[in-house]
Amino acid sequence: MQSIRIAKKTLAMAVVLSIIWFLFFWSHIGILSFENVGSKAIPLAVKNKLCSVNYADYRSNVNNNNTLKMIYYVTPTYPRPEQVPELTRLAHTLMHVPRIHWIIADDQPLCSDVVLNILRRTNLPFTHISSPKPFLYKGTNFPRGVSNRRAAVAWLQENVSDGILYFGDDDNTVDLELFDEIRNTKKVSMFPVGLIGGYGVSSPVVKNGKVAGFFDSWPGSRTFPVDMAGFAVNMKFLKPSASMPYIAGHEEDKFLVSLDLKMEDIEPLADNCTKILVWHTKTAKYKKPTVKINLKQFDGEPKFQNFVNLLKETSRLGMASIESNNGTKPYIIRDRKSYETLTGLQ
């Protein structure tokens, strides 16, 4: 009996020590650290990495008047088949904007060469950050882009004292006129965003030149029911207290509240919020296919090297996986006939 009691005590002590070690380990890496933002707050554990920074503007076609305030355009992104085309489309808008610094924060633990290549090709000043979301929530439906925006804001607070902050997602469409307007933001400016929710638009309601309320199909008990693309912030108004929670639907509101923003501080733009200069276009999701092709079969076939290079590029850009043993069996088409191999093109 005594040996049983000793065994029970030993087991209990082992359990207690295991729990203590578990709590110490997880708190040490930040998993048990919570934001005080409500019952739905999510523990934080992200390791951001500054991948690359370029302050030089190599564009010769844009007149970069130094009297203009710099716009810091923050774009959260994540790996998916649509990532490259969406960033490319946005890049070709930003390339026409004077005095702009593009910050791309990427939701993956490694610095993406694909993303960096897009940034370099624009000739814009840029900052590239690896900013993965908390790994406890990988694969769940928690809000994307929060860890990215937090990382970008942290970089701005450490490196920038003057300019305009704007959150622009990679699936937004932006009129160039918007940049001219937000550049004059004194504290926080707001404006309509098209293609939002059940009303087709999310916007402040302006009365006598002042924001009197908000038109948004989801109130959500929010003080500022606006879309992420519907406001800009002067860096001098970006207080050290600025934070964004991991609470779906409340990211914008809690961020603006953390700035101690008052209704009378809001500057309505876009002709007193009567014009739409930005849209949340939301590119349709594309399920990444796997194509069954054994590239080794093309070894020693220089006449098909262009086709092989195309397949490799498709894989590199994340638009399809090329596997030798798994996936959809492809066909080559010529003269309305389908061939399982390239023999039909010989």
Automatic annotation (TrEMBL):
<feature type="active site" description="Proton donor/acceptor">
    <location>
        <position position="252"/>
    </location>
</feature>
<keyword id="KW-0472">Membrane</keyword>
<keyword id="KW-0333">Golgi apparatus</keyword>
<dbReference type="Pfam" id="PF03360">
    <property type="entry name" value="Glyco_transf_43"/>
</dbReference>
<keyword id="KW-0735">Signal-anchor</keyword>
<dbReference type="GO" id="GO:0005975">
    <property type="term" value="P:carbohydrate metabolic process"/>
</dbReference>
<keyword id="KW-0325">Glycoprotein</keyword>
<keyword id="KW-1133">Transmembrane helix</keyword>
<comment type="similarity">
    <text>Belongs to the glycosyltransferase 43 family.</text>
</comment>
<feature type="binding site">
    <location>
        <position position="171"/>
    </location>
    <ligand>
        <name>Mn(2+)</name>
    </ligand>
</feature>
<comment type="pathway">
    <text>Protein modification; protein glycosylation.</text>
</comment>
<dbReference type="GO" id="GO:0046872">
    <property type="term" value="F:metal ion binding"/>
</dbReference>
<keyword id="KW-0812">Transmembrane</keyword>
<dbReference type="GO" id="GO:0050650">
    <property type="term" value="P:chondroitin sulfate proteoglycan biosynthetic process"/>
</dbReference>
<keyword id="KW-0479">Metal-binding</keyword>
<feature type="transmembrane region" description="Helical">
    <location>
        <begin position="12"/>
        <end position="34"/>
    </location>
</feature>
<keyword id="KW-0808">Transferase</keyword>
<keyword id="KW-0464">Manganese</keyword>
<dbReference type="GO" id="GO:0015018">
    <property type="term" value="F:galactosylgalactosylxylosylprotein 3-beta-glucuronosyltransferase activity"/>
</dbReference>
<dbReference type="InterPro" id="IPR005027">
    <property type="entry name" value="Glyco_trans_43"/>
</dbReference>
<feature type="glycosylation site" description="N-linked (GlcNAc...) asparagine">
    <location>
        <position position="272"/>
    </location>
</feature>
<dbReference type="GO" id="GO:0000139">
    <property type="term" value="C:Golgi membrane"/>
</dbReference>
<dbReference type="InterPro" id="IPR029044">
    <property type="entry name" value="Nucleotide-diphossugar_trans"/>
</dbReference>
<protein>
    <recommendedName>
        <fullName>Galactosylgalactosylxylosylprotein 3-beta-glucuronosyltransferase</fullName>
        <ecNumber>2.4.1.135</ecNumber>
    </recommendedName>
</protein>
